[in-house]
């Protein structure tokens, strides 16, 4: 999330005064960053309206894209760009002063909306503003998006946990991690073009997997529920539900900011789980890791997955010590800077480096990649 405190005074004045001050600000040496431009678009989308609430930006030419924003886009943008106090003011103004209802208060609009992740995130960010009848409609949207996500991930999960790779046999199932690279190259060498230095692959080959016989494993997902981690929260809920259905795996899901919320009892219902998540607040990762340590029954058969941006709001030293204690008892620790379909991380690399030194593995993964990682660790 962007911090307005890092904006220079000229940019702040430009955001306050709006587009009319462009010339004066540029003459004074002002140069807006990409985040500042996005802030300006979000503010103009809301406050650049006529007295009747209409969008005066609808015919704006050569602007910064404000007129292209939808209400869900705008909600997600302000949560990315502004601090909590500003977000609350913007949302209140949108509803009370400009009657921008859309997905927040209008059941007809919500009923017509196409379920997708953008809408899901907007609902989760504004559910506290919804009336009970609108919340019922929103829950149906959440259920549908979660169903779509689970349908895809459950297939990936089943394949990942279907067994260890058997390099003596091949399979018709196309799993990237099972690619028989040598055979692919060998069988397609006849299609190599030496002039273009290009190999055209017409046929792929994948190794088969042996049936997996697993002992009981304990997987503890610790999810940072700060606003910037919403994508990871969504996919963590879906991942936990898929893991819950696997034999030989006991799954825990714990959300945290400065407080700890154990959501394990709702893991089999990710929709209900997501509707209970309270986004925002500080970050106390070390406390969450301490809680996970108390849940572990057999250290050598436990995996702790920290899903966070690793910006520790409490004691970084305590966090590193707690992780070192877990790895010393042969518990596997994985730190994920992102868990979503894009896996594009924004995190504290310095803290991540210290976690690796303490014995953890750190990276960014899609849910399918996490399933493959877990399957590899459990099956070794």
Automatic annotation (TrEMBL):
It comes from the Bacteria. This is Mg-chelatase subunit ChlD. It comes from Neorhizobium huautlense.
């Amino acid at each position: 999330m962007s911090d307005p405190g890092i904006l220079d005074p000229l940019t702040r004045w430009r955001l306050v005064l709006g587009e009319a001050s462009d010339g004066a600000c540029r003459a004074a040496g002002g140069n807006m960053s990409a985040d500042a431009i996005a802030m300006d678009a979000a503010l103009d989308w809301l406050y650049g309206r006529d007295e009747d609430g209409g969008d005066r930006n609808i015919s704006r030419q050569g602007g910064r894209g404000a007129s292209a924003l939808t209400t869900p886009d705008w909600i997600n943008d302000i949560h990315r760009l502004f601090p909590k106090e500003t977000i609350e003011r913007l949302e209140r103004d949108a509803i009370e002063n400009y009657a921008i209802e859309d997905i927040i208060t209008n059941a007809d609009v919500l009923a017509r909306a196409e379920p997708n992740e953008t809408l899901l995130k907007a609902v989760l960010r504004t559910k506290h503003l919804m009336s009970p009848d609108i919340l019922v409609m929103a829950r149906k949207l959440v259920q549908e998006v979660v169903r779509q996500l689970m349908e895809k991930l459950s297939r990936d999960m089943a394949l990942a946990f279907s067994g260890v790779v058997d390099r003596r046999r091949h399979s018709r199932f196309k799993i990237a991690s099972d690619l028989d690279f040598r055979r692919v190259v060998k069988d397609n060498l006849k299609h190599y073009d030496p002039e273009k230095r290009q190999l055209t692959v017409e046929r792929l080959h994948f190794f088969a997997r042996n049936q997996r016989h697993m002992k009981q494993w304990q997987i503890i997902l610790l999810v940072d529920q700060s606003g910037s981690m919403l994508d990871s929260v969504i996919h963590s809920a879906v991942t936990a539900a898929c893991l819950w259905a696997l034999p030989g795996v006991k799954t825990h899901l714990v959300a945290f900011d400065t407080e700890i919320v154990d959501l394990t009892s709702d893991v089999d219902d990710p929709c209900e789980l997501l509707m209970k998540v309270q986004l925002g607040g500080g970050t106390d990762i070390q406390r969450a890791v301490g809680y996970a340590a108390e849940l572990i029954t057999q250290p050598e058969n436990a995996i702790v997955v920290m899903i966070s941006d690793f910006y520790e709001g409490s004691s970084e030293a305590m966090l590193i010590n707690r992780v070192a204690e877990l790895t010393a008892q042969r518990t596997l620790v994985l730190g994920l800077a992102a868990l979503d379909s894009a896996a594009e991380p924004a995190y504290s690399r310095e803290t991540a480096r210290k976690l690796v030194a303490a014995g953890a593995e750190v990276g960014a993964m899609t849910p399918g990649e996490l399933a493959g990682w877990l399957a590899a660790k459990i099956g070794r």
